[in-house]
Design a protein that fits this description.
alpha/beta; single chain; binds 1,3,4-trihydroxy-5-OXO-cyclohexanecarboxylic acid; five-stranded parallel beta sheet; 36% helix; globular; 149 residues; 17% strand
Length: 149
């Protein structure tokens, strides 16, 4: 198995740091990705980080991750969490562990955020920790892989 992790962020997360900071904080996506890269590399893993506002692009990256046999996927599907059977179908083809991540706790928010299609394919769910959830997810994924090895 590879030691290559895929981190995917969905729509509007390119505006992290500026977008509704009372919910999502002031840290930018570039800073989040740098935290994850540092965490992964310190533990002997590499991480590939992508963000898109397009559902099709996210699906294509999941397909590429399957083909290149990534060891795990961390995904914040953002609003696609609540709408996308297509992303669920893509994730259902992944054999590696999948961590679904949300910066906020969607269950404390509007009722339309309470349902996640992605959860049906996820190994684990991290939500409500703010952007700290990202490096926590990297550590958790690596610990999970080590425990299975
Ligand atoms: C989010 C929660 C979603 O409901 C929302 O649409 C997002 C971000 C989060 O990280 O808290 O865009 O996934």
């Amino acid at each position: 198995m590879s030691k290559h992790i895929l981190l995917l962020n969905g729509p509007n997360l390119n505006r992290l740091g500026k977008r509704e900071p009372h919910i999502y904080g002031h840290t930018t996506l570039a800073e989040v990705e740098a935290m994850c890269r540092a965490k992964a590399e310190a533990r002997g893993y590499t991480i590939e980080c992508h963000q898109s506002n397009s559902e099709a692009q996210i699906i294509d990256w999941i397909h590429e991750g399957i083909e290149s046999e990534v060891c795990g996927i961390i995904i914040n599907p953002a609003a696609f969490t609540h709408t996308s059977v297509a992303i669920l179908d893509a994730l259902n083809q992944v054999h590696a562990p999948i961590i679904e991540l949300h910066i906020s706790n969607p269950h404390k928010r509007e009722p339309f955020r309470h349902h996640s299609f992605v959860t049906h394919a996820a190994t684990a769910l991290i939500c409500g920790l703010g952007v700290v959830g990202y490096p926590v997810a990297v550590d958790a994924l690596i610990d999970f892989l080590a425990a299975k090895a």
